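Re: the request from the purification team.
They wanted to know what the chain is likely to look like in 3D before they choose a buffer screen. I agreed to run a prediction and write the result into the notebook, where they can find it.
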Amino acid sequence: MKYITLLKILGVGILGGAIPLVIYLSISNPYLKLSEQVIDGNRLAKNQLVNTNNPSGPADFTAAAESTINSVVHVTTKVIQTTFQRDPFQEFFYGPGAGGRELKQYGAGAGSGVIISSEGYIVTNNHVISEASEIEVTLNDNSKYIAKIVGADPSTDIAVLKIEGEKPFVPIVLGNSDDLKIGEWVLAVGNPFNLTSTVTAGIVSAKARNINILNGQQNKDIVPIESFIQTDAAVNPGNSGGALVNTRGELIGINTAIASQTGSYAGYSFAIPINLVQKVMRDIIDYGVVQRGFLGIEISDITQEMKTSKNLLDLKGVYVEKVLENGSAAGAGIKQGDVILKIGSKEVNSPSELQEEIGKRKPGDKIIITLRNNKGEEITKEMILKSKSGETGILSKEEISKNSALGATFVNLSDEEKKSLKITYGVKVETITSGKLKSIGLTAGTIITKINNEPITSVEELTTKLNSSNRGVLLEIMTESGMKDYRGFGL
């Protein structure tokens, strides 16, 4: 009996030691992606809030407000627009850029953000920090931190920041925006008009709303993805980047925009659903950029007029206007005139719903599409999503870093471009998001010919110098029309 008792005690001891070991390994597993290790709000939430609303009585938001207010931060930015004034006399004797001086114009901005990781990762709107040269984050306890930009995605208006300091920070619990119902109570938590830690309440008025607010902010190479949650919770300037939470205190959206003729709240506000935000922020943390899959089609709503003119069965689904060559849809046999009814098991009845579903996926993902063809037959198609460049593979962080630096990606100039501009070296900015290069006025299409008066002959040469520079940088740049100028930072 003594031996049996001893074995039981030993077994309990081994089990007791194994449990924390398993938990530790699940948290610190080096094979997990970085985002899986650091986005820990749900894991750290000891007491998941429950909806304490009494269906027959007034709603009570106190528990949800209390649980989220310490995870919402105030984001303030300093905007420094830098131009470089040339000195032709000094340049004549000492070379390009000699004797010049920086001219700076100063501005400021403010918004909100949400802590998603005890390690200090924060999600906010891209437009809050897109022009920023310096970013400061103030927590609910009034402690202040300098933030750096991890990455940004203009297509969804999402950006990820990182702060360093005493840990752990208080991450919010992440919810599921697909479960959100129209008419459900929600809270908007943010910092409108620099009034910190403000909570307002409303209901979900609509889902998958497209208000075309991102179209005017993008360049031609960026496709906006809008599928907003519409609410009547009061949101004002300064709420951008803040939290939209349900009555359980779970983050279900990032407040982004209002519909107003005056610039202040007029009854309607819009938030990016958290399920779309999650894909974007995890990609940014893991890779620095968003790995986005594309169907390769142009689509439109089905209106009553279209139903009649195209002889469609009903108003359900999304109409395929055009199929692009070499895209995922073309490879799967989707044709112009088909009507897409489902992505996986999710019905899609508007372009914004379809864009949201595809926006959650990456190149290489296999999806099942249910559609109705021009014969009225309902069929399914299986396809593998491709990237914008037609690839099905995921780029590694190392590959991405070779072509990107300080918020921009670059491509080598073609021989034709060099001949047209009468140069033999230089690289071109392909895309640009929030970061140092955007803050000094570079745009997509800008050509960088020299860094600190040294000619640039390849993309990798430029990115290596930009990423490793610990001193002032002077860039000789050229517009696509051939006009030469200079930009500098840290001089």
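For the purification team: Residues 397-489 form a domain with the Pdz3 Domain fold (CATH 2.30.42.10).
Please add any questions underneath this entry.
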